[in-house]
Amino acid sequence: MTPLLSIEGLHTTIRVPGSNGGREHGEVGVVDGVDLVLDAGRTLALVGESGCGKSMLSLAIMGLLPPVARIASGRILLDGLDLASLPASALRAIRGRRVAMIFQDPMTSLNPVLSVGAQIMEAIRVHVPGLDRRALRARAIATMEKARIPNAAARVDAYPHQLSGGLRQRVMIAMALACGPELLIADEPTTALDVTVQAQILGLLRDLQRETGMALLLITHDLGVVAEMADEVAVMYAGRVMEQAPVSAIFDDPQHPYTLGLLGCTPALAMNAGRQRAIAGGVPPLASMPPGCRFHPRCAAALPDCARARPMPRRLGERHLAACLRSPLEASVPAARP
Amino acid sequence: MTGRARFRNAAAFRTSPRAGTCMKRYVAYRVAVTMPVLLGVLVVGFLLMQVVPSDPAAVRAGPQASAEVVAALREEMGLNRALPMRFALYLRQLARGDLGRSLINDAPVATELGRAIGPSMELMTACLLWSVPVAVALGTFAAYRRNSVFDRAIVMLSIGAASVPVFFVGLLAIWIGGFWWQLLPFTGRGGPFWTRAGLASLVLPAFTLGFVLLGAVVRITRTAVLDALSSDHVRTARAKGLSEWSVTLRHALRNALIPIVTLVGLQIGYLIGGAVATEIIFSWPGMGRLAVNAITSSDLPMAQGAILVIAAAFVLTNLAVDLLQLLLDPRIRR
Asked: Where does the pLDDT of residue B12 fall: very low under 50, low under 70, confident under 90, or very high at 90 and above?
């Protein structure tokens, strides 16, 4: 069985002004050789610190990279179709219909001057031509009901500012689901919401996934969300995937020092292990990535060899990969530098 | 009201199902605050004419009149009374719809103004009708093809248009359209715009006046559309699979209209100034020319009337712009 989404050796770069400040531009890599696989109906969580390339990766799948960024090499296969090499018009036909996306901030992600119904109807009209206004409206209301928006028939004419943050995110979800996508990309869908609303939105996403059988690519930095939602987890750092494994393996048997460090940063998870710890240092700037393993300057378990060659992913279980020279880790490896 | 009650009221206001009443209240409020502004315009217009170093009685009596005749006329015209008294009389006169009589030809000011309003509005409307759509289209296209050759050309054109003074554009228009090609008339108004001659005579003045507006509106449109194009909701629109063109029109331009309308409203003030120059160059029988002629011939009642009408037009335009914003932006509509 071919996976629904398969990313192979994806590199994306962004253009930066040259060092001489003139017209010559340099390019720096953001996503640096990422391989990922997501089966239909499953949930893959993409975890990492801010600036590790998670969002860039998701925008690359959608073909929505900002003008300064581009896909330098690699393939993004959706059911065997390479999205990275499709012309813009063909990509538009897929965007919103087969692959949909919801964003972090529902406050700014909806157009403030159009009613939410109009925005949902627009999403349907792009891909289902020939529906009249009434049919569109009925379908928009049905989609809103599917996203558990109470009183949808009245709210279809509401403007975004008249709705709460949770309702707006539900509208975003309704818009994304309007054409029944096979893959939903959710970029930090709950980060901007209240904690109680977060749980509702996650529950909704899970229910909808069960009803429609869509796959979910969930981008987050919240390991609580990962534990709640994911089937598989990919841990990214500085544009590379450090470790990829089923969710239970990530929490019970992490095989990369960076994953260990992330788990150590999470208050509830660190409670038993004593003090909550931060990973020392910060993500290196894009233009001056360290050689070898990009995590080695911050790694508590680094060996001299870590600075020499990029560690290739090692297979540790059936679906468990870790890109670390020291994996499988012995028990004595510290989670973070003291 | 306690702090807590106030919060509760605010929440009730926000969730009020009777949103329409809020909007009506806003419209009523906005119309009501126009009244004091108009009154202020009256006061300032009146006072301005009092400080002008010109004696209305002397102007009316003519250059050959003796001092006694002028003094008698002053008494008759009520110019010897106290200032507040004269203002009260002026207000009473206004309330009857009487704006006084011209000092030069004794014609009723209201009639003269009424005759000039039509051509002025014609010129202004024609100018807005061509320049705003053209400017918005150019600005949007520049934003859509940002950093392309078209974009640079449009930006250059708009800077040029905004930098050239209106009288120069007028002279150029006369020279090219009137002398060179001999296509269009350039003096006076040929008649109402629905007649052939009237329409032909409107072309060059409307072109000249619109040119003043063009540059500024192109640039605000380009900036506002670019700004909107980089917003989060436009990314959402792209994620739906909309084409870049419909993203630009339906989402970016639609939102950019809010700042564009505000700017056009403000520019109408400048336009009135530009209209004065345009009307003089093309001998257009409008308000601007009337006002300038009245001022240069010390015809104070006429000048005062013209200033009043122009100022009122400006205030009413701003009111119209604010009400138009209500249509464009549901956030102020509630």
From this structure: very low
Q: Are strands A215-220 and A240-246 parallel, antiparallel or unpaired?
A: unpaired
Give the residue, A274 or B197, on which the prediction is more confident. Answer: B197
pLDDT tier, B292 (very low <50, low <70, confident <90, very high otherwise) = very high
Q: Give the Cα separation of B50 and B56 in Å (integer).
A: 10
Yes or no, beta carbons of A96 and B240 under 8 Å apart: yes
Select the CATH number that applies to the domain covering B112-333 from these four: 1.10.1740.10, 2.60.40.10, 1.10.8.60, 1.10.3720.10.
1.10.3720.10
CA end-to-end distance (rounded Å), chain A:
46
ipTM above 0.85, yes or no: yes
The A-side interface with B (CB below 8 A) comprises: 62, 64, 92-97, 100-101, 103, 105, 108-115, 119, 122-123, 126-127, 159, 161, 172, 175-176
Is pLDDT of A333 > 70? no
CA-to-CA dists, residue B83 to A130, B41, B45, B218, angstroms: 72, 17, 13, 47
Q: Is there a contact between B241 and A112 if contact means CB atoms under 8 Å apart?
A: no
A88 to chain B: nearest residue by CA? B243
H or E, element range at A31? strand A25-38
Residue A117 to chain B, least CA–CA distance (Å): 14
Q: Would you list the domain boundaries of chain B? A: 112-333
